[in-house]
Design goal:
EC 1.16.3.1, Ferritin-like, Ferritin-like_diiron, ferric iron binding, binds fe (ii) ion, Ferritin, mainly alpha, 6 helices, ferroxidase activity
Length: 185
């Protein structure tokens, strides 16, 4: 008994399992990257390496600010910076892990981190908590924009990398919100 002919002409989805089984056997050493992967994996690896650099620079900036912060509100601000720093490092590691899955090598070379990062490393005076909070808010707003662009570019071509970037983006938006609260904006 066949259901053919009962679907509308726009719903012509046919899963060609035979062809897919043939294709995946050709390049077994590509691991999870198969013929149905919808982006150039080298481009995605390059974009993810810039994300790694960005996250490491964000970790460095938050860590520096957390340690050097001084003044009456030091404890609260420093605790927030420390928590954000830990999450930025986690983002770097998750992006690096995905680069490995795509057959690339994560680039942690300190000589190139600053030039590849979307955000800047800054060192406001230790007693200027307001400048620290504003620098970090600016950085968070930059990555919110650049990660949104990356997510739109990935589209349906690489759903796993897109979900990773969406999950990181969600935390960057929480970071920006935390900083706005501390700034009293
Ligand atoms: Fe991050
Ligand atoms: Fe962040």
């Amino acid at each position: 008994m066949t259901q053919q002919g009962t679907f509308s002409t726009t719903d012509d989805f046919v899963l060609d399992v035979t062809r897919i089984r043939e294709q995946v056997r050709q390049k077994m050493d590509d691991g999870p990257v198969t013929g149905t992967y919808g982006r150039e994996s080298d481009r995605v690896i390059g974009v993810l390496n810039d994300v790694v650099a960005t996250e490491v620079v964000c970790w460095l900036r938050y860590t520096r600010h957390a340690i050097s912060a001084s003044g009456i509100d030091r404890a609260q601000v420093s605790a927030e910076f420390t928590e954000h720093a830990r999450e930025e490092m986690d983002h770097a590691l998750r992006a690096a892990e995905r680069i490995g899955q795509l057959g690339g090598d994560p680039d942690f070379d300190p000589a190139r981190l600053a030039e590849r990062s979307h955000t800047d490393y800054t060192t406001p005076p230790a007693n200027d908590l307001d400048a620290m909070l504003r620098d970090n808010l600016e950085a968070e707003r930059i990555v919110i924009s650049t990660y949104q662009e990356i997510i739109r570019w990935l589209g349906d071509g690489d759903p796993t990398t897109r979900r990773l970037m969406e999950s990181i983006l969600e935390e960057e938006e929480e970071h920006a919100d935390d900083l706005v609260d501390l700034l009293g904006l």
